[in-house]
Structure formats: structure tokens, C-alpha cells
Design brief:
By secondary structure, the chain is an alpha/beta fold. It contains ten helices and nine strands. The protein has two domains: 202 residues, Rossmann fold (3-Layer(aba) Sandwich); 55 residues, no CATH class. The chain is 41% helix and 21% strand. The strands form two sheets. It has a seven-stranded mixed β-sheet, sandwiched between helices. The protein is globular.
């Protein structure tokens, strides 16, 4: 397991930084966002929440509109409003620093929220997933169906029919999915260049970012060129990689996530 940072966090300082986070006078808080068709009880995600709690942070792990039971409920702005309400609760409870961590589409949403709404002191993007720019290329049969669905939703919105409810295609780590929702809401999640496109939003990240990726994740080979190296210049950004796949990465990266947020809380 390696942690590589821009003149910043080194692997040997993880335990020290976590301890400093635990001892801070001003409390910090973090929301941890699950992946597509996931739940707040996903064990690798709970490992992240536990590591943050042990580091002294207030932690919330909410059910989001892309969960197994809500998939997909409304436009991205609805998800962002839910995040904002939870973060407001942290602030009322006295949290002086606010962090977001997310897995897969949860990472995409965390980045999208931070760029759209602001007020975030640090992001942990864990095995980022849901990539509209890549879907739109139509490479492979699953992505070809998603590309066609994006084009159909865009045409409906352009014709003033964004309220039309239809079945659209989705890709969850190589699994073909179908989702029934309004065309405008679908486009909000799948439009290349939109709020839920990490490739488009990464260069606008308004705060320090921990980019964590498994070497067995399909996004691994492009993690630096399309994502980490395009972050706004900030020596506090950190790149974490480990021998993990898309599902297991959050658990492996849990200590590094706690250390990263701890370094920003000191």
C-alpha cells in the first residue's frame, strides 16, 4: 500500500495525523456517501465511517437517491439538497470543518456537491465511479446503450419534454442496468460535462482532495492523467493507491482517509 502526496502527506505520518484529528479542539464532521445501488451498511464503507469516528470526527452515512431502494430518485440537485441539510445539522452541532467522503458514484456526488455548493474543507474520493464522459463514447455494448439513452434524454429536454418519464440505460461497473425516471433528471446524472461528471468537475475542485484508487479498478490506469493531475494546484492533495478492486478499496483506504481529514483539521 502506498500513499503519494504533492509535497504533503507521507505514509509514515498516518497514525500521527489521525491522533491530531482526534485531539483537535474544534470538532470536524464528515458525510460518507455510498455507491450506486448500495446502502449505508456496505461493510467497506462502514470501515471508513469507523476510522473517521475513531479519529474524533462526527460522521453521517446517509441513504442517498441512488441507493438500492431509491435508484434513482430525482435530479442531482435533490441529492445536493439532502447533503446540504445534513451538513447544516453538523454545523448547528458545532462542527468547524466539514468533509465529504464518497465511494463510486458517492465520490462523484461529493465532488459535484463541493464544486456546485462550496463550503467543504476536504474531499476523499474513494474508487470514483459513474463517468458520463466515458459512457458517452459508447465503447462496448453497455456503454453504447447508455450513450443512446443520453442522446434520447437530451433530445427530449431540448424539445421541452424533460418531464417525460421513460426507461433509460445505466452502467454499474460493467453491469447493465435500467432506470425509470424523468428525462431531465436522467440527463442531470448522465450529461457529459455536467455536475455528475467527475472528469469535467475535477479541475474545479475547491478544496484539498484525497484521490484513492485500487490497482484492480478499471479507472486505475487513467487516475492520474484524467483526474489527479488535473486538480487545481494545492500541495495538500494526496494520491493513494493500493492492491484493491472497486468494492474493497474503501476499507483499504479507511486509515488514509482518516489521516487526510486529520491533516486538514490540525
Amino acid at each position: 500500500m502506498r500513499l503519494i502526496a504533492r509535497r504533503g502527506i507521507l505514509a509514515g505520518g498516518l497514525a500521527c495525523l489521525a491522533a491530531r484529528a482526534h485531539a483537535q479542539a474544534a470538532p470536524a464532521a464528515a458525510l460518507v456517501l455510498h455507491g450506486k445501488q448500495g446502502t449505508p451498511n456496505f461493510p467497506p464503507l462502514r470501515a471508513v465511517a469507523t476510522a473517521l469516528e475513531q479519529a474524533g470526527l462526527r460522521v453521517g452515512v446517509p441513504e442517498m437517491p441512488w441507493s438500492r431502494s431509491r435508484y434513482i430518485d430525482g435530479p442531482p440537485d435533490k441529492a445536493f439538497d439532502e447533503i446540504a441539510a445534513l451538513l447544516a445539522g453538523f454545523k448547528r452541532a458545532g462542527a468547524a470543518r466539514i468533509f465529504l467522503a464518497g465511494h463510486s458514484i458517492g465520490a462523484t456526488a461529493a465532488l459535484g456537491y463541493a464544486t456546485a455548493r462550496g463550503g467543504i474543507d476536504g474531499l476523499a474520493l474513494l474508487a470514483t465511479g459513474h463517468v458520463p464522459t466515458f459512457y458517452s463514447l459508447g465503447l462496448g455494448p453497455i456503454n453504447a446503450t447508455v450513450r443512446d439513452a443520453i442522446l434520447r434524454a437530451r433530445s427530449l429536454v431540448a424539445a421541452g419534454k424533460g418531464e417525460t418519464v421513460e426507461e433509460f440505460a445505466d452502467n454499474n461497473q460493467g453491469e447493465a442496468l435500467r432506470v425509470r425516471m424523468r428525462a431531465a433528471d436522467y440527463l442531470g446524472y448522465f450529461d457529459p460535462g455536467g455536475a455528475m461528471d467527475p472528469q469535467a468537475q475535477i479541475a474545479r475542485a475547491p478544496c484539498p482532495v484525497l484521490w484513492a484508487i485500487g490497482t484492480r479498478d478499471s479507472l486505475y490506469s487513467s487516475s492520474r492523467s484524467l483526474y489527479f493531475d488535473r486538480l487545481p494546484r494545492d500541495q495538500r492533495h494526496a494520491f493513494f493507491e493500493a492492491d484493491a478492486d472497486h468494492r474493497s478499496l474503501p476499507q483499504v483506504a479507511a486509515p488514509a482517509t482518516a489521516a487526510f481529514f486529520g491533516s486538514l483539521s490540525a
